[in-house]
């Protein structure tokens, strides 16, 4: 059934936030979803959030999984990686080891997804802790270039680049989805324009023409 006049499509994506323990994954996610700063450190087991954003005029529903960075929960990572369509790889600019951990995570994602071009954004968090910087910005940038992923320095504390990292990932996932023609579009639903209520209307997208047109965006 085609969408009714005044309704807009909402794309839905699964985002997974990964990185070593204490780098600020939960704080970045809480700032993005709730505009909330968390001072205390309470290691995460697993938290999921659902939030809708507008990206270049397109509505995107994000299911965000904030994962545990501590070793004892690594067994669950395979499962997260299987379901993720986009990944935020977070390290802290105050810890060289946390950047090194990202290499392993990235390799695992590529192996599990069997996809070298899976949408990824690299985030150097805690950029406000200038005096404690241990990772050279140029070095982190060079690594991200080698991985062909954008690099942002962010601060969950000052809310610097928080929206930008999530929106960049959304753009990558949208671009990816637009050119992924043999895709099952069961997860598209239509929503009344400017109505962000939870009433969901699922429709199959009608034809390839629309998808091809979206590539230009
Ligand atoms: N100064 C500063 N502190 C931060 C920032 N982001 C997080 N923190 C602090 O770092 C600690 C850990 O933050 P979390 O967001 O819980 O870290 P996490 O990566 O989710 O940790 P795990 O749940 O163990 O994986 C907390 O005390 C935060 O207040 C930041 O951008 N700047």
Description:
This protein has 217 residues and is an alpha/beta fold. It has 2 domains: 8-179, Rossmann fold (3-Layer(aba) Sandwich); 183-216, no CATH class. The chain is 32% helix and 25% strand. Strands 1, 2, 3, 4, 5, 6, 7 and 8 form an 8-stranded mixed beta sheet that branches. Helix 3 links the parallel strand 4 and strand 5. It is globular. The model is unreliable at 195-217 (pLDDT under 50). The structure holds guanosine-5'-triphosphate.
Straight-line distance between termini? 25 Å
**Series of secondary-structure elements, N-terminal to C-terminal:** EHEEHEHEHEHEEH
In terms of structural class, how would the helical and strand content be classed? Answer: alpha/beta
CATH topology of the largest domain: Rossmann fold
- The geometry reads as globular
How confident overall, as mean pLDDT? Answer: 83
EC number: 3.6.5.2
Membrane topology: Lipid-anchor
Keywords: Cell membrane, GTP-binding, Hydrolase, Lipoprotein, Membrane, Methylation, Nucleotide-binding, Prenylation
Pfam families: Ras
